[in-house]
Amino acid sequence: METKYDYLTVTAALNELQDLGYSHDFNIDFDKLFFSAEDYVIDYLYRYEGITNPSDESTVYGLRNQRTDEKGVFVVGDLSLVEGKKREIIINLEIRSKNQG
What we know:
By secondary structure, the chain is an alpha/beta fold. It has one domain: Signal recognition particle alu RNA binding heterodimer, srp9/1 (2-Layer Sandwich). It has three helices and five strands; from the N terminus they run E-H-E-H-E-E-E-H.
């Protein structure tokens, strides 16, 4: 997993991932992650932390299905505000991806 902290905007991170083939939007279609999270890894993680305001935090994940090679993105603001299974899945993906890299 490659982690970047120095991108300009979420849009810039999304454009870079789009150029790398990460085209599926998992924010819209989270069911794929929900039902088969074990098949996914985080290839890229772009974390933006606002210089003056902590509420400016956002993270862009470049996700890849290891079985099908489908690539997509998931964008979240402050992950601590995400509740339930969605938060658990993303945290587990981060842990697993860090351990593999």
